[in-house]
Specification:
single chain, five-stranded mixed sheet, globular
Length: 755
């Protein structure tokens, strides 16, 4: 039987046209339907051969309006969400970790459109909060294990997050929401829906959100336009998506443990106190700490108050992003036993990260300038799938191609004078006085996948594999320490096998194995984030990261209780990590290290109990034991980091989430608690942040089925804690300025109305 199946899959891969579409596009409707079925808080992936869970629109809408959908999935086992803001939208702080795999080792899709790794300064995608308003999301599906064969991703060693948009309703209607809350938070959303049962239907929406920083001074805001159209053509369907986002966020100051002890949790960037920023820069220059010439000897060499460095507080910093995304899809049955889905997409991004740096003075005499990292992305791609049934086999063949042009530059812009900044960090600056480096990066991605779902009564078996080739090329426009060159990651056979066996009508056992490879990162923290000498030394010998994931679990589902208990083991090979060689603001090149292997072993439990028609109790627990299995040595054999047996950074051993909710159709409410044990933020585990327990609450009333009042309270008990670790990179040891303080307790009120 095994030889027969393998032969069948190989023949299918050779003969079937790999139509350019994806499971995301084809499964969006069923995904949202499954998530909504029965009003479950979490759909536990019944019938899936691997660990899969899904949250629906109701779980997203009860969050504070404007909240990123990643906040909704933090209730799932093994999902670790870090953010210093209550919304999860502040990109410099937001991190997603699954089973101890970091964000750049996780795949992200929206309606099948690849989002890259959603990291800050992403070279091949964008954050989910910049492509869709949360009010337009139908469901979010998380596959905690590696692989996810039919997903457009070449980095999903440790899981996949897929987000699906709502479909337009076949009627004319409108929805309007307005939110006001702490720190002058304003959120406005309006959606107009049009169309009928048989013809074109669609919606267009506009969302605006703005909040003052909860400490220091500054604003974070965003304009978002979404539009979706669906056109039935007989049994076929054409669908289109368009989004535009303009996000501008002034940053919080990165902190260290020593800074928190000296300056307190309320310390932040200095804006609008430009005079103090100039004073700190002058003192640093006089002490020969910045490398800049002395500009004001009279400032002396003694820092005021508890400041001990110009890095303790910068004048200001911000992130600016503009994104346009368009996609066009087609899906249709092919006879009675086959289907095809196709989608093409385009994405343009213009972005900047701005920092007021004391290390490079302005030509105007100001001891500070604006240092930028500038991003421009133009990418287009197409993906698709075709599936057909042969006896007890349902075979799906998928393909994906993407071409990405990415430009990144480091430039410096002058401030007006020693007494006046003359520029806003919320605007895109022009006329740089110095370009440190300017690079073009080209990435070409080609991926295919084959999967066979075999139905044998109570037993379902999935067999398949994926393969891809990704080439990256860097070309200097303005040369610097960073390298030029070309590198390729290629593996045409990454196998996956899984089974699920039904135990009567309510229970099932599932097990799976999958193998995955991660393509090399493009710039930040990747193989091009080092020197030319470093790149030349590794380009022909460095191996891409790979993982082997084993899963075993049990699910149970009844009218009153749904639950899942599972265990996993991951062997992670050729792990590549970049270690920062200096302060983040200096822009020093990273040092790429191969830290050998990692083993992660974990237990995941989740349950949803219906106590009555109106009351539900939800809980999830995760135990993780993730350790480095090798020390790190340099090219000469010298020990550089003794990390064998040490716990992975940002891999808490225990995570526990619980929710008690009430909904009688009119009144509704929810209180949720989130516990996380301590997290290490150095590879040698000599530095960590404490465990924390954070609670949130929401309650409201529906006056009609179209008019609703909702209140949200984040950080209910006003816990003071570190929200994000390693915001500016990770060091082998020692206290480093790479922590972000979480938001205090905040209150929000929302009115929702529609027709």
């Amino acid at each position: 039987m095994r030889r027969l199946i393998v032969s069948l899959l190989a023949t299918t891969a050779f003969l079937a046209q790999p139509a350019l579409a994806a499971d995301g596009a084809a499964d969006a409707d069923s995904a949202s339907a499954d998530a909504a079925e029965g009003g479950d808080i979490v759909v536990l992936g019944q019938g899936q051969t691997r660990q899969v869970q899904e949250v629906g629109a109701a779980a997203i809408q009860i969050l504070t309006p404007g909240t990123s959908p990643i906040r909704a999935i933090e209730r799932l086992p093994s999902v670790n969400i870090q953010a210093s803001d209550p919304f999860g939208n502040y990109e410099w702080s937001t991190r997603v970790t699954i089973r101890s795999f970091t964000q750049n080792q996780i795949g992200f899709n929206f309606d099948g459109i690849p989002l890259g790794d959603m990291s800050y300064g992403n070279y091949n995608g964008l954050h989910i909060s910049r492509i869709v308003s949360p009010e337009n999301i139908a469901s979010v599906r998380v596959s905690q294990g590696a692989g996810a064969l039919l997903t457009q991703a070449t980095n999903n060693l440790g899981g996949t997050m897929e987000t699906f948009s709502i479909d337009p309703e076949p009627r004319f209607g409108a929805q309007a929401n307005a939110t006001y809350g702490s720190d002058e938070t304003i959120r406005a959303f309006a959606r107009l829906n049009f169309g009928g049962e048989q013809g074109l239907r669609g919606f267009v929406s506009y969302g605006y959100g703005s909040t003052d920083k909860y400490k220091g001074h500054g604003t974070q805001d965003q304009h978002m336009v979404n539009a979706k159209a669906v056109l039935p053509l007989g049994d076929a369907t054409i669908d289109g998506w368009f989004s535009y986002s303009d996000r501008r966020e002034q940053d919080y100051q990165d902190m260290s443990l020593s800074m928190l002890a000296r300056l307190g949790y309320d310390a932040d960037n200095l804006y609008p106190d430009y005079a103090l920023a100039v004073q700190l820069a002058d003192i640093a220059n006089n002490r020969s700490e910045t490398g800049a010439p002395v500009s004001n000897a009279a400032a002396g060499t003694v820092y005021p108050g508890n400041y001990t460095s110009a890095d303790d507080a910068y004048y200001d910093a911000s992130g600016l992003r503009k994104d346009t995304v368009a996609a066009l899809g087609f899906k249709s049955p092919l006879g009675e036993a086959a289907n095809v889905a196709l989608k093409g997409y385009y994405h343009h991004n213009k972005g900047m990260g701005l920092w007021g740096t004391p290390y490079v003075p302005s030509p105007t005499g100001a001891p500070i300038s604006i240092r930028t990292t500038e991003y421009d992305i133009d990418r287009y791609g197409a993906f698709g799938s075709t599936d057909f049934t042969l006896g007890f086999n349902t075979i799906t063949v998928g393909g994906w191609y993407e071409h990405t042009k990415f430009n990144q530059a480091r430039r410096f812009y002058a401030l007006a004078s020693r007494t006046e900044a003359g520029r806003s960090f919320r605007d895109y600056p022009t006329d740089p006085f110095f370009t440190q480096w300017d690079f073009d990066f080209t990435t070409n991605t080609l991926q295919y996948s084959v999967q066979d779902a075999i139905e044998l009564g109570a037993l379902k078996v999935n067999l398949g594999w994926k393969g891809f080739k990704v080439t990256n090329r860097a070309e200097a426009i303005v040369k610097s320490v960073y390298p030029e060159g070309r590198i390729k990651a290629q593996d045409w056979f990454q196998p996956s096998v899984g089974l699920v066996y039904g135990l009567g009508d309510r229970g099932e056992v599932f097990a799976s194995f999958s193998q995955a490879m991660r393509a090399f990162g493009g710039v930040n923290g990747g193989v091009f984030g080092t020197t030319q000498e470093g790149f030349d030394a590794i380009k022909d010998t460095v191996k891409p990261e790979t993982s082997d994931t084993y899963e075993l679990g049990l699910r149970y589902h009844s009218s009153t209780f749904s639950g899942s208990l599972g265990g996993y083991m991951v062997d992670f090979h050729d792990r590549l990590l970049s270690v920062a060689s200096g302060a983040s603001i200096v822009g020093s090149p990273s040092i790429l290290q191969n830290v050998g292997s990692v083993r992660s072993i974990g237990v995941e439990a989740v349950g949803d109990l219906k106590l009555s028609e109106s009351v539900r109790l939800f809980a999830s627990y995760t135990y993780t034991d993730a350790t480095y299995r090798d020390d790190v040595y340099d090219a000469t054999g010298k020990l550089t980091a003794a990390i064998k047996g040490k716990t992975l950074i940002d891999a808490p051993k225990h995570m526990l989430r619980g929710e008690l909710s009430y909904d009688d159709g009119k009144a509704f409410g929810r209180i949720a608690a989130n516990y996380m044990s301590k997290r290490y933020f150095t590879y040698t585990n000599d530095q960590s942040v404490d465990a924390r327990l954070v609670a949130d609450a929401a309650f409201g009333y529906r006056f009609t089925d179209k008019i609703e009042l909702q209140f949200n309270i984040s950080n209910l008990f006003d816990e003071q804690y570190i929200g994000t670790i390693n915001s500016g990179g990770t060091g082998n040891s020692g206290d480093r300025q790479t922590l972000l303080v979480a938001a205090p307790r905040q209150f929000f009120a929302t009115i929702k109305a529609g027709f």
